[in-house]
C-alpha cells in the first residue's frame, strides 16, 4: 500500500465484513458493495460508508462504450451522492455560465491547476475573502471513457466551449496494464487530484485530507489486487525453488535461474 501512504481513509472493516454479493433493490442484479447502474449501495448500510463533501458539483460524462462494471466514476457517485452526477453520452447538460465551468482534460492549451487558481482568485471582488474562490465555479466536468474513445465526446458542441484544465504531476495507481503515460488517470483519481491540488492552491494552510475518501473503494480494490499479485509471486517463487532443488540433485552442474515471471491480476 505504499502508493497510498499518507492518504487518510476510513476503515475498510465494513467492506471486509461483506462475504457475498447481494441483490440491488432497484434493478435486482447481483452486486457487491454498490450497483454500478443504479448507483445504489448494496449489501451495506449507507451510513457505514464515508461521505465526501465537495465544494463544487461534479458532472461525469460517460461514454456509451465504457463498461459500467469497470468504471471508477461510480465510486464518486456513491461516496459523494449530493455533489456528483453521471450522464450517459450523448446526454450533456446545458451550462449557461461557461465562465464557471471547467473540463478536466489534458488538451494542449489546457490550464494547469495553479493557472486556474490564479484566474479564479483574480475574479474575487475586492474586500471578499479568498475562501469565496470556490463560489466562482459551478461545475467541474470529467469524461469517463477510454482514451481511445474520448474524441467522440470532445467534439460535442457543448464540450468544445468549456475551458480545459490538466493535471500535470499526478501518477496513476491503476492496476491494469496500459500503454499510455502513467499520467493518464482513472476517473476517480482525476476527481481526487483535481480537488486536492486546487484546494492546496487556494487554501493558506496545509491540505487536511478532506477529499481522501474519494479513493475509499479504489484503494481497497488496489489492496486486493496487490495482495493477489504478491501471493502469485510468492507461489511462483516457491515453485521455482522446488524445481531448482530438484535440478540441483540430479543435475548439479545447472545453476538456479533465480528469476520468476511477474503476474498481473485484475479485480472482477
For this entry, give a set of tags.
268 residues, alpha/beta, 6-stranded parallel β-sheet, two-stranded antiparallel ribbon, 7 helices, 30% helix
Q: What is the tally of helical segments?
A: 7
- Low-pLDDT residue intervals, each spanning 5 or more residues: 245-268
How far apart lie the N and C ends? 20 Å
Strand content: 5-15%
Biggest β-sheet: strands ordered side by side in the sheet: 6-5-9-7-10-8
The number of E-state strands comes to: 10
What kind of sheet is the major sheet? 6 strands, parallel
Q: How much helix is in the residues? A: 25-40%
Protein structure class: alpha/beta
- SSE arrangement, N to C: HEEEEEHEEEHEHHEHH
Alpha-carbon Rg, integer: 22 Å
Shape: globular
Mean pLDDT: 84
